[in-house]
Amino acid sequence: MRSCVKALLIGGTGPTGAHIIRGLLERDYNVTMLNRGSRDSNAVPGEVERLRGDPHFPDTLDRVLGGRSFDLAIATYGRIRYVAEVLSTRTDRLITVGGTPGYRGFADAGQNFPAGMPVPTRESDALVVRQEEGKFGFLVKATEDAVMHQHAEGRMNVTHFRYPVVYGPRQLRTVIFEWVMQRCRDQRPHVVLPDGGLTLLTRGFSENMAQAVLLAVDDPLMSGGKIYNCGDERQFTLAQWVEIISVEMDWPLDIVTVPDAYASPTREMITFHGSSHHQLLDLDLIKRDLGYKDVVNPVEGIRRTVRWLIDNPPEPDEVAGITRFYEIENRLIEIYNAAANKAAALDHDEGDYHHAYAHPRERNLERDHRDR
Fold first, then answer.
1. What is the pLDDT of residues 30-63, one digit of tens each?
2. Where are the beta strands (DSSP E) in 42-199?
3. DSSP strands (E only) in the chain
4. Structural domains in the chain?
5. Distance CA 99, CA 80 (A)
6. pLDDT band at 369 (very low <50, low <70, confident <90, very high)
7. pLDDT at residue 1, as a whole number
8. Does 3 score more than 80 pLDDT?
């Protein structure tokens, strides 16, 4: 028989939901899951109470919750600023999940000097403070401010997480997986990637991101009043993502590099269809405060996601949205090959590398054999 400690999870059917619920049940919480009811998940145990309500509006959320209260609330879905407002009279402990668009330079690399987000980006780095820097990022920042205001005013103990791009089973859109896997299914020999596919963009496997949230559940004193980046400890470049996924599909793809400005077939793989600048988050704070470590090796997480998507393939219209880029991809590769052949024909004088420090082969010489 479970204890009378009650937890509310808003969301629950996405990639991290079932793992958060499992962790709460293991901690002996009575769990209630609230969402719009548009889909359920067989990964969520039947003992979990389902509440149907819309967390995007304060009146609809207030109506479904009525006079109920909870020892813990976790909001991974909905309009979080309204959720925090409604829950401020129903719980003393709130954990919310948002994203990273509030960082200045996330949506528009040119907003920073030098261009791009700091590498890596810490929680204390510059945020969007004006709509001109990006409307969506401005709204994300405003939401964070509203949520953390509840903590500052003493209404609740609040922790907020900036989720990265989350991958794993039950994710609604796993663009990089669909993009690579369809090319493997169609036995395409190669792919184009911007600037050699060297971009680092923080992602997080669903079980690892659930673990981050559960660590805050376990330590409300340390995590209270704080905002945390999260993501897998080990990150991969776009080229490495293509390599891991295509090898798991047993159809390794060759990578052809094109300038970012012309890499239109790959634009979906960059958040907000942005540039190839890095979007790499610093994880030092969550590791230092809460002892975060990956519970699943990201390579294994990628493999599990590939296998899940093989069993749950995309709809035909999604496939069409991927394959429509094949023609321009072919043309880009033709252009690249022609340019590469011309470049290879140049007389490249690369020379041998020697470091700048003296390394004499004989004793008592003023200068060594390379005149250093």
1. 999 999 988 777 889 989 999 999 999 999 999 9
2. 49-52, 72-75, 93-98, 157-162, 165-167, 190-194
3. 6-10, 30-35, 49-52, 72-75, 93-98, 157-162, 165-167, 190-194, 203-205, 227-229, 254-258
4. 92-344 (3.40.50.720)
5. 11
6. confident
7. 55
8. no
β-sheet bridge partners, residue 7: 31, 72
> What count of other Cβ atoms lies within 10 Å of the Cβ of residue 371?
6
Contact (CB, 8 A) for 73 and 34:
no
- Residue 324, both tokens: 């429509």
318: exposed, middle or buried (C-beta count within 10 Å: 0-12, 13-18, 19+)? Answer: middle
| Closest of 328, 322, 294, 296 to residue 309, by C-alpha | 322
**Residue 247: alpha-carbon gap to chain centroid:** 22
Asked if 193 and 239 count as a contact pair (C-beta separation under 8 A), the reply is yes
The CA distances from residue 113 to 105, 121, 126, in Å, are: 9, 14, 11
- Which amino acid type is present at position 223? S
Contact 211, 301 (CB under 8 A): no
Contacts (Cβ under 8 Å, ≥6 apart) of 72: 5, 6, 7, 8, 24, 29, 91, 93, 95, 217
Distance CA 292, CA 234 (A): 13
- Residues 35 and 11: beta-carbon distance below 8 Å: yes
How far apart CA 96 and CA 162 sit, in angstroms, is 9
Residue with tokens 């953390």: 148
Q: Which amino acid is at 350?
A: E
Enter the tokens of residue 218: 């376990």
User: Which of 37, 30, 34 is closest to 11 using CA atoms?
Assistant: 34
CA atoms within 13 A on the CB side of 179: 22
How far is residue 325 from each of residues 244, 246, 315, 338, measured CA to CA in Å? 22, 18, 17, 20
SS3 120: coil
- Could you give the percent of the chain with pLDDT greater than 70? 99
Cα–Cα distance for residue pair 82/147, rounded to 1 Å? 9
Which amino acid is located at 357 in the chain? Y
What whole-number percentage of the chain has pLDDT above 90? 80
Amino acid letter, residue 153: E
Rounded distance between C-alpha atoms, residue 358 and residue 111, angstroms: 44
Which residue carries 């899951």 as its tokens? Answer: 33
Contact 111, 133 (CB under 8 A): yes
